[in-house]
Amino acid sequence: MQLNAVLNHLKPNTQKHLFTQEQTQAFFFFESATIGLPEEPHRNSTEDSISCFGLRKKSNKEKPKMTQTNAGASSGAAAATTTELPPPQPQPQTQRSEMVLHTGSLSFSSHMSREDEEMTRSALSAFRAKEDEIEKRRMEVRGRIQAQLGRVEEETRRLSTLREEIESMADPMRKEVSVVRKKIDSVNKELKPLGATVQKKEREYKEALDTFNEKNREKVQLITKLMEMEQLVGESEKLRMKKLEELSKSIEETV
């Protein structure tokens, strides 16, 4: 009867934690035997690290097995103690067992919730610490790289200055020659457009000269034609004068 009452009282808790009938019986004896003991200590850093790497579900699944084994051992001890004690009255024992089961389930659930919160907090703190450490290392590496880049730039500048000094020592007139060459290059650059303009002007001059020669030829041709016309006009005037003389003679004869 006592066991049936305990099982009826543990039905909602069995649905929540997925305990079997044998586990609930063992849990009852374990709680009745260890009601005067202190609470279980908190998890250490290794358990927190296990929860950080995603093994939290596995540890939660393995808890009922551990409680079952501990409950089996405690049930043996409780059975040994109950065999020695005289049989108590039925009603107070049932009330006591119900109270023990109720308090045990509450303490178990509160202990589990506390452990879960502590595990999540420790996981978050470990994750943040790792992120901070990674950020610090990244900034240190960045600073080192920037320092090395600055050194490389300084070394390149020094090398360029040293190269110029070595070149000046090898050929002291090299700078003057380079200056003269630069001037020659600039003059050549200026002469190129001037040469192009000169060639253009030469073409224009040739074209103008050709047109001038053509016009002169036309002028000569026109002059020759004018001379011919003057000769023709002179001949025609002579003929007219002859005709006029003949007419005047004929008129005189008739008179």
Automatic annotation (TrEMBL):
Residues 54-97 are annotated as: Disordered. It comes from the Eukaryota. Residues 71-84 have a biased composition (Low complexity). PANTHER family: RAB6-INTERACTING GOLGIN, RAB6-INTERACTING PROTEIN GORAB. This is RAB6-interacting golgin. It comes from Brassica cretica.
